[in-house]
Structure to design on (240 residues):
């Protein structure tokens, strides 16, 4: 899974470079999750998970609190959760997750981003069957063997535990994200470089050099849309 982790890091680095958009996307997601359940992370596991993920992107506490307060205030702004699937250059597959208060606008913008950048929209299910929802937790300060022992004691069956560069990366079932992170935190880890549920491709493809710039432009266009929360793909970015 090494290359997949590098792809996640690439995506995260790109988002970190545009903090205002990252903050706005998290504020929207936190508001939606807080409104759907209890606006208290101690009572709402989904909200707690979003906040934990926001922290790995360095989202300021005041933005998190403001989004929760908006949900508590009874604001009536409603958002739909949407998933779009499509294809990019060199047979690449792309999943786009969005939160929107205007479905027609979002569908039009996503379709335009694909069409103007060498891709095309697919029907529901045309791409997602080639991806697996996976919890990914990354951190420093422990060895893979130590982490395996920690997870074993917590009765957590991880899909994989790897050491890459100075980090340990744990891949787990989506519903084990919170339990896995909690077990690792109790073992002394305080900071996480990533802690989220992502869509990992079952296989990866290489984009030709001629198509790489077009592919990058397509991903950037999709991620730049205000309604788009996450973009996943199956392209091997060639990093080790």
């Amino acid at each position: 899974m090494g290359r997949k982790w590098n792809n996640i890091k690439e995506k995260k680095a790109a988002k970190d470079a545009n903090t205002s958009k990252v903050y706005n996307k998290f504020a929207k997601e936190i508001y939606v999750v807080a409104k759907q359940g209890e606006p208290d992370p101690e009572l709402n596991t989904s909200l707690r998970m979003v906040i934990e993920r926001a922290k790995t992107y360095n989202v300021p506490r005041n933005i998190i609190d403001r989004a929760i307060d908006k949900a508590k205030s009874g604001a009536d702004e409603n958002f739909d959760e949407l998933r779009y699937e499509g294809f990019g250059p060199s047979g690449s597959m792309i999943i786009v997750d969005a939160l929107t208060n205007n479905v027609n606008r979002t569908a039009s913008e996503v379709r335009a981003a694909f069409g103007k950048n060498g891709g095309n929209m697919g029907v529901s299910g045309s791409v997602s069957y080639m991806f697996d929802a996976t919890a990914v937790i990354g951190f420093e300060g422990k060895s893979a063997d130590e982490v395996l022992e920690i997870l074993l004691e917590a009765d957590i069956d991880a899909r994989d535990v790897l050491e890459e560069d100075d980090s340990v990366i744990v891949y787990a079932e989506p519903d084990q994200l919170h339990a896995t992170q909690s077990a690792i935190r109790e073992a002394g880890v305080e900071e996480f470089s990533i802690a989220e549920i992502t869509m990992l491709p079952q296989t990866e493809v290489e984009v030709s050099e001629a198509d790489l710039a077009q592919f990058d432009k397509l991903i950037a266009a999709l991620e730049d849309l205000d309604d788009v929360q996450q973009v996943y793909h199956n392209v091997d970015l060639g990093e080790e």
Summary: Residues 65 and 239 are 37 Å apart (CA to CA). The longest helix spans residues 19-36. The mean pLDDT is 90.
